[in-house]
Amino acid sequence: MKIKPLGDRAVLKPAKAEEVTKSGIVLPDTVDKEKPEQAEVVAVGSGEKIAKLGLKVGDQVLCSKYGGTEVKIDEVEYKVVSEDDILAVLEK
Amino acid sequence: MKIKPLGDRAVLKPAKAEEVTKSGIVLPDTVDKEKPEQAEVVAVGSGEKIAKLGLKVGDQVLCSKYGGTEVKIDEVEYKVVSEDDILAVLEK
Amino acid sequence: MKIKPLGDRAVLKPAKAEEVTKSGIVLPDTVDKEKPEQAEVVAVGSGEKIAKLGLKVGDQVLCSKYGGTEVKIDEVEYKVVSEDDILAVLEK
Amino acid sequence: MKIKPLGDRAVLKPAKAEEVTKSGIVLPDTVDKEKPEQAEVVAVGSGEKIAKLGLKVGDQVLCSKYGGTEVKIDEVEYKVVSEDDILAVLEK
Amino acid sequence: MKIKPLGDRAVLKPAKAEEVTKSGIVLPDTVDKEKPEQAEVVAVGSGEKIAKLGLKVGDQVLCSKYGGTEVKIDEVEYKVVSEDDILAVLEK
Amino acid sequence: MKIKPLGDRAVLKPAKAEEVTKSGIVLPDTVDKEKPEQAEVVAVGSGEKIAKLGLKVGDQVLCSKYGGTEVKIDEVEYKVVSEDDILAVLEK
Amino acid sequence: MKIKPLGDRAVLKPAKAEEVTKSGIVLPDTVDKEKPEQAEVVAVGSGEKIAKLGLKVGDQVLCSKYGGTEVKIDEVEYKVVSEDDILAVLEK
Questions:
Q1: Residue F87 falls in which region: left (phi positive, over 0), alpha (psi -120 to 50) or beta
Q2: Which residue in A3, A7, A47 is closest to B62 by CB distance?
Q3: Chain F residues near residue G61 by CB distance under 8 angstroms
């Protein structure tokens, strides 16, 4: 079973705490709606707006923690987010 | 009696709990407005926005649980949703 | 006396309870703003948006119960609704 | 003294209760913001939106009771309304 | 010192009570935000929207009483309003 | 150190009380959000909207007192405002 | 690890208090949402709106203190902001 995001949405796999720590990123521990989260791009919709972002499957991104919709498939957690919830790409 | 959705709307048939379980999907049990739901596409309107999504009758989709309008026809429950309430297509 | 709806509006005649029952449709009895209602199209405005819906006089439609403005002419109740309040056409 | 409405506005003369009764129209007696009112078109602005409605001076219209701005000139009450407040034309 | 309104704004000089009375206009004495006021056009900005209204310096207009910004220059009171606050032109 | 406003913004230097008095302008002393303020244009951004206003450095303008962002550089107070906060140009 | 901002966003490095003091800028100490902050441009997204601002890496800018999303990489604090949160460029 695979999830194909519609329009200007993407499917992301949130990074686990140990992965985030290893990458040297510290995300502020606020209760703020703007709290960011590190995640991996799993699939990108075919909308015009998200196409302009040039996202590739496997990209590590910074997204809004409370944006999007959570769903678990075959024991793996995913998030379906709109393009506006993805703030930046993290590059090594 | 059939329902033909207008504009950028679609008619969906929400999946039963056992169908969802079999598919390996776990939908979070929150009271959140963003709670997702699995459903089957029954009919697609002729609006320009929904046309871009490329939805086909029979597609399994992930949609917003509290979006749309419920209606029961000949003992079967349906939902009329706007294209924006359909988040993703589920593919086997 | 006839009502000619302006712009992207339509005039509808809400179906009576017994007509709805006969048609096999069950509309949820909620207090929700999104509660739907069955009605017959009596007149369609000449706006561009409503033209795209392809509605015909006599069509049975599903519309939002609390949308639109009620008016009684020669003892018959009508509703003037905007095109966005009409969700779907019911076809036999 | 005459009032020339600007842009997409019209000047209407609300119908008196006895005129409304004679016309066979019954307007619901609600406190709702959507309560309609019968009125006569006195003048139409030159905006593009209101032009599309094809209103003529002397037309009897159904408009939103609480929309628009009231003004009395030479003892006659008028309302300046925007085109969106005019719902339908009443035709004999 | 003169005030040149910017964009789609106009500078108006509110009419004095005795002038309004003489013109035969009665403005409703409500606390409503939509309360109208008679005023004279003193200057018109060069925005595209206000140009379409065809206002001329010296025109008597009906405007929203609580819209705009008051300013007093050389003991005379003026209002800077946006084009949307001007409802109608009053013609003798 | 100089401030170059971005997009449709301008940098203004609010006039001192004695300057305002000398110019013959009286600004109403309300707690209203719409309270105006006299200021001098120090720099204009390169956005399309503000370009249409034709503002020049040195122009005396009337702007919304509570709009914009205050900043002090080398002991002088400035405001960064968006073009929509500038109501009119004051001309001698 | 580097952060590449998406769309009309930029990555900024907030200036330290001593840097701000040295530059001669005094930022008002209000609890206002509009409180400004000095920061250095680290990276600029490829969106059309932010392109028009002509920002360059290394530019000192004035931005809205409470806009954007904070993130710490390799012990350095950054902010991901949208183009609308950047008010002005500070030039020596």
A1: alpha
A2: A3
A3: 6
